[in-house]
Fold these 4 entries.
Entry 1:
Amino acid sequence: MSPVVALVGAGPGDPELLTRRALDRLSKADLVLNDALVPEVLLELAPKARRFFVGKRAGRHSIEQATIHRIMIRAAKRGERVVRLKAGDPFVFGRGGEEALALLAAGLEFEVVPGVSSALAGPALAGIPVTHRGVASGFVVVSGHAPTAWKPVLSGLSAANVTIVVLMGIAARRDIAHFLIERGFSARTPAAIVCAASQPEATRWLGTLESLAQAELASHEGPGVLVIGEVVQLARTLLPSEPMAFALAALG
């Protein structure tokens, strides 16, 4: 028998990219607490469940994290099967660790159901391998929501053999581009912006660090990923044309 609370990764949003375990937990759920970036089509996979939106969006009022903990714990202690449905993976900038610790402190059993993080899915669906022999031997994933989150990590990197993936960094793209150039990255370093990967409205932009700092994007509500490094050049070969449901925004 599965634990009463499941911290479930929703992946990038396409139902076909969910794990079988995620589908099972959703189908059996009595209560689903979902993030802002979880599309409606995934919530429909929990037909018996009550749904409670607990998402956080930049610049908007959102429910306190402690309140989310209380809701999960109270429902679980009533015997309800609870799914905390998170965009991407629960343990990649999803506060899944905080929620797991809160459940543990309350004496509740829980499980983590991993999901495909947009840090990997976004680049992959845009034709960008984050590692590639002879081009990039590793990658780093950083949050772009505040300079205090990304500066300490990026300040220790060199441009050689590494791919930088920035989540929640669309608004900070100019600051990040300027910072890396000041740190010695070539202004010609390939860069990409991937928005709403796996969704019908998905777009990608290909350019350089220099043009990234100048890029003007149409406003969007979907998640976005920045990718910086030589591997971005492979996108023009691996995904040269506009595939169905993935439009190329020709800004670069």
Entry 2:
Amino acid sequence: MSDAPKIEQIEGQLNAAGLRLAIVASRFNGFLVEPLLQGALDALRRMGAPAESVTVVRCPGAFEIPAVARRCARSGRYDAIICLGVVIRGATPHFDYVAGEAAKGIAQVAMEADVPVVFGVLTTDTVEQAIERAGTKAGNKGADAAEAAVELVSLYRQLGQCHGQ
């Protein structure tokens, strides 16, 4: 028998029952964002979130996601915010600015918010890569983001640092 101290482990659970969730989804590249959104909604349903507990907030593009996510987080209405969008590299530096600012902005909101704010923005070189990540070969990154959000709510609550505890 070992006398080694037992290490405490804290893990989040994938149970969305009773959670209020916001999904901030960009309209730009909507034909790719829509499958991400549907993947997130399906994952939330499978984790026990009723439809009425989820609010979808549409914004123009990925660049605007951080500001909308910040308003959702500050509203006190949601236990987590899931950010979904798609930015595809083109022939100009526009991709670098939009993708970089979306990532930086969402990360900043996540660090400042008392609730989880999850990055589900695809930043790909091609449309084909985005399609693969929106529900085909590489799974659905919208579903992955929804699972991460639910797990983080549980984890934050166990750590005593989540809104609504």
Entry 3:
Amino acid sequence: MASALFHARLKAEREDWEQWLVDSAGTWATEGQAASANSVKAMASRDLDISKHRSKEVSEAFLEMFDLVLTMEISHKEALRVEFPRLAGRIFLLSEMSGPARNIEDPYGLLLKDYEKTAQEIEGYVETGFAEIMKRVALAGK
């Protein structure tokens, strides 16, 4: 959901949005799984289609493609920084882009209302942290 929400914001804000690589991978994901039905519904209510999304397992090669890696949970950030110390300077929490570090809980397996709540929370962080994200990506690209 975070990838779709960020990509939508990027498309609304930047003429060069198609040149950006925005993707997602799971810290403990199983490769190739479809997005949960409630994720698809939560995004559809925002006119975003993630029905073709398939999960990817995070790897160093995957992370190397990105100037900035944003996680949802502190444990994910810490795990990635430990496993890929060379890339640690690229790895942050989404919440850190607009304020103090805090977890965005994964609603996996819960009700649609829980997915909607998480989507709304992610949307808020994307909105309030967008300028900081752009700043960090620009700095990393230099």
Entry 4:
Amino acid sequence: MQKIGQHSDPITLVISEVVEPNLIEEYEAWTKGINHAAQQFDGFIGVEVIRPRDHQNPEYVVIVKFDNYDHCKNWLASSVYQQWMQRSQEFISKRSLQHQPHGLEIWFTLPKINLENRIEPPYYKQVIIGVITVYPLILLSNLLLSPLLQGLPALLSLLISVVFVSALLTYPVMPYLTKMLTFWLYPTSARRPRKARK
């Protein structure tokens, strides 16, 4: 069995951070600083910050990508990363982090399990999930958008439809569906450990 530390595929960090509402400006400055620091490390691919809509409970989602797990691990274990984490304690009230080995899994709601023990869904299961989510969304897009897109160039109509489907697929459809099907996607992870017999 291949250990995750030997995984050569790109890995994505999805970091959720709830910020103190009165310290958003400080957080924004801190985010620019830590993102710049990450760029100096080997294997860094890119970063995307999704900003909150609710300013009363501002939750940021930061998506960081490295070319493989080892480079990602080097960043997380570095003194530079630890120093930036210490600086953030004053304005971040809650933080959670998930490792996602494949870019496609950005659409999956992963169970909260140890990274070393996680078994990724088989390829065929990911294809099935994709089909049963994308196909109905395409039908819905055609039903709702076709009357509005009449007269537009074909490529522009297609682009609008793709944006519509992708937006719904990312949230709420895929997270909700994969959470419901955790027992099937991650059967080993979803199984509760049995209590030892006395």
